[in-house]
Amino acid sequence: MSSSTTINVPYCAVFLAAVSILLLRLLLPRLRPRKHGGAMNPPPGPWQLPVIGSLHHLVGALPHRAMRDLALRHGPLMLLRMGELPVVVASSAAAAREVLKTHDAAFATRPRTDTFHTMTRDGLGILFAPHGDHWRRVRKLCVTELLSPRRVRSFRGSREAEADSLVASVASVASASQGKAVNVSYLVSTYVTDAVVRAVVGGRIGDREALLASLDEGAKVAAGFSLPDLFPSSRLARALSGTARRVEDVVGELSRIMDAVIEDKRARRSGAGDEEEDILDVLLRFQHADDAPLDIGTIRAVIRDLFGAGSETSATTLQWAMSELMRNPAALRRAQAEVRGVLVGLGQSRVREEALPELSYLQLVIKETLRLHAPVPLLIPRECREPCRVMGYDVPQGAMVLVNAWAIGRDAASWGADAEEFRPERFEDATPAVDFRGSDYEFLPFGAGRRMCPGMTFGVIVTELALASLLFHFDWEHPGGAGGLDMEEALGITARRKNDLLLHATVHAPY
Ligand code: HEM
To answer: Cross-referenced PROSITE patterns, in alphabetical order (predicted)?
Structure first.
């Protein structure tokens, strides 16, 4: 079944709960929607119902898909009302350029939805931080210290060790019993999380399974559309919302894990030698800065944000890259031939990072994966800080602003009639070259502008290293054949695979 026809339960729940609120509202006139702006010429959008607004248009499909279908009818800049919340959606390269470049400053803050508020209850990091001095300071720290190219290079040894572990885990399943499928989804998620954890704290953590489970739950609940997000003025919405409780639980669990990680690091630091600093070392150094010390809540929140933002996204990319290669045997053969040829040329028996710049086709495979499967399909929501005119329409102050990077990556106007097909070669043909570094608005997997992803270099290298290793060491097959693989997406802040990717692996180059 295609995901566009899937009834997804959380949205039905939202719908039913919203209908209950509608009925109650008729009985309780005190429950009033919040007023937003007096826009003169608002963007067009679909017809609305009282109280629930446009929510009924989103039932039955994942939000990025439903919004793409609505945009085809209503235009590249569209106004929805989701409960009490005005939501402006940009769905073309031109609309994204206006939001992320022309009016970047006006849209550089994050909305204070109930979910985002709870997410930052135990400390404000970077992901959900409103635009302002705190965000500027932490962002600068991320860009110049924590995720700078030099720092990312310094984690190379731990990344390669984690890629070796990934290969060893696949090999052990492949050789343990003939015919047993490898759970690629689980193994790549574990690999990416371990690689990010090692960069942040310098080693693995004891609570790895708990961290994986919490990140997984966090990605599901942080989609930003829980009932209290949609009806912020309604206490009833909060009382009815199971999601709000799930967000509280996941925040509590993540805070517990972060505190244990920080305690453990403090204990290890007292006897530390002169090893390369990891990200937590740097943050703890800033905790004692003379001019503006970082408080412990911020440190806890920053590392939680890096775990969250770094793990799910890169793991999602790897899962879709392997899925697309299974469905496109010619691309799989070409990528495998390239990595095997390059490693023979370098005389290497396992993938080391110096081989990665030589793998030009593999890089195209990853670009094409990011184009078709933007891991954060609606980017992370922004909020309009001041009344703003975009493409001739007035965007009301306080509106949530979404950029549908998933739809933009598949827009035939930018990518041609075969936009829905997986064809890495399209990037070879493109003149001028199109890249994801934030200046080509038809291709925005990392966003653009001042809130653009600061972890891009790290995310790309983690993904390239694992994909090259999987293709070098193993031959892969889907039990149901190339055409039998389902491509259904899960609901969440990331658009990862709904079902685990289970593949057969045969060892090609022993580890
Ligand atoms: C394939 C991998 C990745 C993808 C596709 C990705 C994508 C994104 C996107 C779309 C945003 C929101 C941009 C916006 O609002 O315009 C974002 C923000 C962010 N990402 Fe990434 N990301 C990836 C990897 C990473 C990694 C590895 C890290 C760090 C370890 C990271 C850290 C962050 C942070 C801290 C933000 C928030 C920036 C801010 O609000 O100022 N990301 N990412």
So the answer is: CYTOCHROME_P450 (PS00086)
127 vs 180: CA distance, rounded Å: 39
Largest CA distance in the chain: 76
Residues with CB under 6 A from ligand 1: 126-127, 139, 142, 147, 196, 305-306, 309-310, 313-314, 317, 375-376, 379-380, 445-447, 451-455, 458-459, 463
Residue 142 labeled ligand binder: no
Q: CA-CA distance, 175 to 511, in Å (whole number)?
A: 12
Q: Which residues span the domain enclosing 205?
A: 9-507
Planar angle of CA 52, 405, 126, nearest 5 degrees: 85
Q: Using alpha carbons, select from 57, 62, 34 the residue that is nearest to residue 46.
A: 57
Q: Separation of 453 CA from ligand 1 center, angstroms?
A: 4
CATH number, domain containing residue 187: 1.10.630.10
What are the pLDDT digits (tens) for 415-428? 999 999 999 999 99
As beta bridge partners, residue 77 has 90
269 domain residue, yes or no:
yes
Return the HEC string of 340-393. Answer: HHHHHHHCCCCCCHHHHHHCHHHHHHHHHHHHHCCCCCCCCCEECCCCEEECCE
- Cα–Cα distance, 281 to 151 (Å, whole number): 12
Specify the ligand 1 atom closest to the Cα of 305: 35
What is the domain count for the chain?
Answer: 1
Q: Which residues contact 230 (CB under 8 A, 6 or more apart)?
A: 14, 18, 55, 82, 83, 84, 85, 237
Q: What is the mean pLDDT of the chain?
A: 88
Pairing of strands 400-403, 85-90: parallel
- 3 lies in some domain: no
N-to-C CA span, the chain = 38
d(CA 346, CA 285): 40
Whether residue 256 is contained in a domain is answered as yes
Does residue 452 fall inside a structural domain? yes
User: For residue 128, how far is its CA from the centre of ligand 1 (angstroms)?
Assistant: 11
Helix boundaries (H) for 75-183: 93-97, 114-119, 133-141, 149-154, 156-176
Angle subtended by helix axes 329-346 and 456-473, to nearest 10: 90
The mean pLDDT values, 10 residues at a time, for the chain of 511 residues are 34 51 46 47 95 92 95 97 95 98 96 88 91 95 92 94 96 81 95 93 84 86 80 86 86 91 81 72 85 88 93 95 96 98 95 96 98 96 94 95 98 96 93 91 97 97 98 93 86 89 91 74
Q: What distance in Å separates the CA atoms of residue 70 and residue 127, rounded to the nearest whole number?
A: 28
Q: What is the DSSP letter of 144?
A: I
ipTM (interface pTM): 0.99
Beta bridge partners of 382: 401
Which tokens belong to 38? Answer: 């007096």
List Cα–Cα distances, 303 to 138, 165, 261, 280, 466, in angstroms.
11, 23, 10, 7, 23
